[in-house]
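Ticket #474: bound-state structure for flavin-adenine dinucleotide.
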Amino acid sequence: MAPPSPTLVWLRDDLRLDDNPALAAACETDAPLIIVYVRESGPTPRPPGGAARWWLHHALAALGSALLARGQRLVLRSGTAANVIPEIARSAGAAGVLFNRRYGPPAAVDSAVESALRTDGVAVTTFKANLLYEPDEIRGPGGPMKVFSAYWRRTESGPPPRSPVAAPVRFPSPVDGIAGEPLESLALLPTTPDWVGGLREAWTPGEEGGRRRLADFVDDGMDGYAAGRDFPAEPRTSRLSPHLRFGEISPFRILASLGVRSGRDAAKFVSELGWREFAWHAFGNHPDMATANLRPDFDAFPWVAPTTADLDAWRKGLTGYPIVDAGMRELWQTGWMHNRVRMIVASFLTKHLLIDWRVGEAWFWDTLVDADPANNPFGWQWVAGSGFDAQPYFRIFNPVLQGEKFDPDGAYVRRFVPELADLPDRFVHHPWDAAPLELQAAGIRLGRDYPEPVIDHAFARQRALAAYAAMRAG
Ligand SMILES: Cc1cc2nc3c(=O)[nH]c(=O)nc-3n(C[C@H](O)[C@H](O)[C@H](O)COP(=O)(O)OP(=O)(O)OC[C@H]3O[C@@H](n4cnc5c(N)ncnc54)[C@H](O)[C@@H]3O)c2cc1C
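RESOLUTION: The complex was predicted; output attached.
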C-alpha cells in the first residue's frame, strides 16, 4: 500500500507545541509530517524590529530543539510565503496544509497562500489558536466594537473559551529531504555592536521560558496583581507579553492555568488579557491601524516636526523627567517596559513634545521584545487620544505626580537612572527642586550629570491643550 501523502504544518506566531491546534490535528493522523517556518519578506507581515528579531531567533532555536527531541525537524525558509509554502507542498506531494489563523494584514497573505494551494489541489485547514475571540466573532449592533467595557461584556455572553489541547505525545514520521536554511542565515541576531546583553539577562525566550513564567506568576505573583500592577518597581505583572507575542504560550492555556482562582486579582488579570483581545479586534477590523488614526478627526492634529534634540532626549532617557527617563532606559536595557510607564512616556512624547504617536510607535516597534502588531499601535493611539476608548487628549499626565504616585520611594527611578540614586525620596522625581547642597550631597550637578527638564510641564500642558483646541476648531 502506498504511504499516505504528507501533511505540512506552517507555523508563524504560534511557536509552541502545547495548545497548538494545527500541530495537534496533524499529529492525529499517520501522514508523514513537515513543519515549516518562513521568515517572510516585508512589508506584510510587518518585519519585526531589532529586539523582536533577537527574540524570534531564540524562539525558533528553542522550538527546533524541542521538535528534534521528538524526532521532528523544523524546516526554516525565507521568502514570500505565497511562493515558499506551495513550492514545498508541491515538491513533497503534500495532500494537506494546516495552519493557525492570523488577523490584520497577514490574513491577506494567508488567503493568497490558501488559493495557490487549492489551485494545486492541496487541502487547507485553518484553526483558531492565538486569540480567545477572533476579530469578527464579536460584533456590536453597529458592527465592530469601539468601547472596551461593552466589548468585554459581549464576549462573556459568547461561547466560553475552549480548553487547551495538550502538546502531541506521538508524532508521525518526519519527511526527509526537505531543503531548509540554517537559523543563522535568517540573520535575526545583531552583529556589531552586540547590544543584547541586557535582553539575555532579562529573558528566556521559548515555550519552556513562557511556561515557567506563567507558573511563577500563578504561584507567587498573582495575589495582589490588581493593586500592584501599576507600580513599576515591583515584579507584580506576569511579563508574559513577549511569550504571547510569539505564540509561545496560548491565551487558552493561561486561562486554564488560573484554575479555580477567582476574585479581584484573577478578574483584573483576565481583563488585561481582554485588552489584548480588544486590540486585535480593532486591528482585524482596521488593518491600517499602525499608520492611520482610528479617529479620523486626529488627521488634522498639528503635530510638530520632531527636533533631533527632543527625539534623542526621549529615546535615550535624558528628558530630565526621572520617571520618563527610567522607562526609556528600562526599554533600552531590557527590551520591555512596565505598562504604567509605557503610558507615561507615550504621553510625554505626544503631549509634552507634541510628536506624532507614529514616531513613538516605530521606536517601540524596534526596541520592544514584545512589539506586537496590534497592541503597540493600539497602545499608542490609546494614549494619543486618536484610538478607540482612548484616554482623552486633554488628560495630560504630569510626569512628576505620576512618579510620586506610582514610584513613591523612587526605587524604579534609582534602578534605571543610577545618577539619581542618592537623592532623597522627596526630590527623586523633581531633582530641580533640590537645594544646591542637597544636589551636591547626592553627587549631582544638574545639567551635567543629569539634564534639566527639556520642557517645562506647565508650558507643555498649555501648548498641548491649544493644539487640541486647534484640531477641534477644524
Ligand atoms: C504605548 C503602549 C505600547 C504598548 N505596546 C505593546 C506591545 O507592543 N506589545 C504588547 O504586548 N503590549 C503592549 N502594550 C500593552 C502593555 O503595556 C503590555 O502588554 C504589558 O505591559 C505587558 O506586560 P505583562 O505581560 O507583565 O502584562 P500583564 O499585566 O501581566 O498582562 C498580561 C497580558 O495581558 C496583555 N495586556 C496587558 N495590558 C495590556 C494592554 N494595555 N493592552 C493590550 N494588552 C495588554 C498582554 O498580552 C500581557 O502580557 C503597550 C501599551 C502602551 C501604553
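RESOLUTION NOTES: Residues 264-285 form the longest helix (22 residues).
TICKET STATUS: resolved
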